[in-house]
Amino acid sequence: MFLGLDSSTQSLTAVVIDPISGVIACQLSVNFGSEFPQYQSPSGFIPGGANGEVHANPAMWLEALDLLMSRLAMVTDLSEVKVIAGSGQQHGSVYLDSTFDKRLAALDGSQSLAAQLSPALTRPTSPIWMDTSTGAECEEITEALGGSEEVCRLSGSIAIERFSGPQIRRFFKSDPAAYERTARIHLVSSFIASVLAGKSVPIDFGDGAGMNLLNLATQSWDSSLLAATAPGLDEKLLPAALATTVQGTLADYFVKKYGFSAQAVVALFTGDNPASLVGMGATTPGNVVISLGTSDTFFAAMPGPKTDPNGFGHVFGNPAGGFMSLICFRNGSLAREALRDQLGLDWSAFDREALAETQAAAGTNLMLPFFGPEITPRHDFSAPVLEGDAAFESGEEPGLKVRALLEGQFLNMRLHSQWMGVKTERIRLTGGAAQNDGIAQLVANIFQSPVERLDVLNSAALGAALIAAAAAGHDLPQLQETFCKAEAGSALQPDFALAGIYESALGRFQSLLAASR
Ligand code: XUL
User: Fold this and answer.
1) Distance from chain centroid for Cα 133
2) Fold exhibited by the domain 2-274
3) For labelling, which of 122, 149, 167, 390 has a CA lying 20 to 30 Å from the CA of 195?
4) CA-closest residue to ligand 1 atom 3
5) Ligand 1 atom at minimum distance from 90 CA
């Protein structure tokens, strides 16, 4: 059996797979907010931070690891687990002094992980991906490199507030003595992997690319980015490596306390998005995952390290080798819900009015679907922009508005993923709104690609379990074939007759966008 863990913003999840019988043997989650109220982090982070700070306490993640393992041991024979791999929320960074590795090597089963390892933290809490406090540091790094294009060309993303490099720089500037005492900097992923391995293990290429520090072309820490971030940083990071590499045996602590085999090994952990790419069965170029959530995300495998000339999208390492894109759209469900409420509709009316009753209007009316600031494209929109016929612009036919909003969202996605230069051959759609047949058909029509829906609950933790099995020599494409199947009957073909209509709508959408910014 193979164990995948995902340490996300709100919870720690485990998925155990048996690749021979092709079954998920067990899935379990521990919710940080409800299980550990003493950390006062109901949604997994400390609310009310000043100046855009969003931090979480790493001790809480450690308590969750102990609790999850104890619950897993009650329902699974953990001595059957051969390899453990995992993923973490991306960008979160953990700062540790020189006692960390000694503490890891001497973990005592009679005490908790949190009690034994927390004293090694040089920064008591970790900035996570929701943090926006590093605007000044992003500017300084960008200036030192001679501009955003260069930071993006080297690292795959322009300097971004939530990325770990700017966060490290802010720590160095605000508490230089504590930075100096920091011997090791980990990401959430490599921190948890290190605890399991009983020694500090590297950051992988997937998660490492979310730091503005990894050189995509050489897959190693970039000396000019390191120098622009903080002094002595190279000594605090281990060389980055591929996720599927095994790092050593599981620490004795877990063997004795939870009944794992002494032969169980730990593979490198990666970021939750790279792990999801694996868990959604989308690691080969041509496959695209669109996740419809509070924000929408688009991610896809890429053969080479191409970067977004506009600097909106990100490039990370693909755990299966090669690269992947990640593009976030802030106005996802937020915008869908805002329009639904404005028009006083429920979801089924949204679907019916928009899509069944307005078929003939496909590609006619345009809406820039932004109810507030957007990041792709980066602009402070305040309300949607409309361009179309009188019935649409006056709002007398609400269905036309719904159609134009959804078309606008997916035209915007198609437009801002073109830089990847990879032809979309199959889209795997996930997230709440993916279950809506009208929306799924619209995605197929706009991208002119088949769309499948996937019945995967915990795609990152499942991806991690597949990485664990691949690290032991199982064939990854074969594993994906078994574990990442589309829901029966969920596949939709595009309406090819609409290809030209949406091609022309895409051009008009682009012009409207250019005129509105
Ligand atoms: C990606 C990002 C988020 C986190 C969520 O850049 O910030 O998707 O990985 O866990």
Assistant:
1) 20
2) Nucleotidyltransferase; domain 5 (3.30.420)
3) 167
4) 90
5) 9
